[in-house]
């Protein structure tokens, strides 16, 4: 093989290596930025936004009660008969007036959830029973911050 051919191959190899290194660096930098943005936008664990009284939202709620005695995300022991609820982002201790049909109950947010798409609240079994939600297990509710 001639020296000229070897020189051209080395140059081509150097260009490929440089291009691959630059592309790899761009991917790492790009992914790092997007990953941190995604973490900050989707993190429900650190969501402690304050919410003013009178704010309301509606959607589908479900209930849970088999976890009685386990710790909630707030550190309290879960009591299935208490008037409590789980919400993805509302601060712990937020009181909500939850209405289903013509029945209402005031609950305190002490857990995180629900983790099923399309649901806005997980009520304790006691709260769900108070508004008549235990028959079907899920139902449309309106929640108002107290």
TrEMBL record:
Stored Gene3D superfamilies: RlpA-like domain (2.40.40.10)
An annotated GO cellular component: plasma membrane
Annotated protein name in UniProt: Endolytic peptidoglycan transglycosylase RlpA
Organism lineage string: Bacteria, Pseudomonadati, Pseudomonadota, Alphaproteobacteria, Hyphomicrobiales
CDD domains the UniProt entry points to: DPBB_RlpA-like
SUPFAM superfamilies assigned: Barwin-like endoglucanases
Domain RlpA-like protein double-psi beta-barrel: 58-141
Natural source organism: Afipia carboxidovorans (strain ATCC 49405 / DSM 1227 / KCTC 32145 / OM5)
Keywords, alphabetical: Cell membrane, Cell wall biogenesis/degradation, Lipoprotein, Lyase, Membrane, Palmitate
GO biological process: cell wall organization; peptidoglycan metabolic process
Cell wall biogenesis/degradation in keyword set: yes
A GO MF label: lytic endotransglycosylase activity
EC number: 4.2.2.-
PROSITE patterns: PROKAR_LIPOPROTEIN (PS51257)
NCBIfam families membership: rlpA
Role played: Lytic transglycosylase with a strong preference for naked glycan strands that lack stem peptides.
Protein family per UniProt: Belongs to the RlpA family.
Membrane topology: Lipid-anchor
Subcellular location: Cell membrane
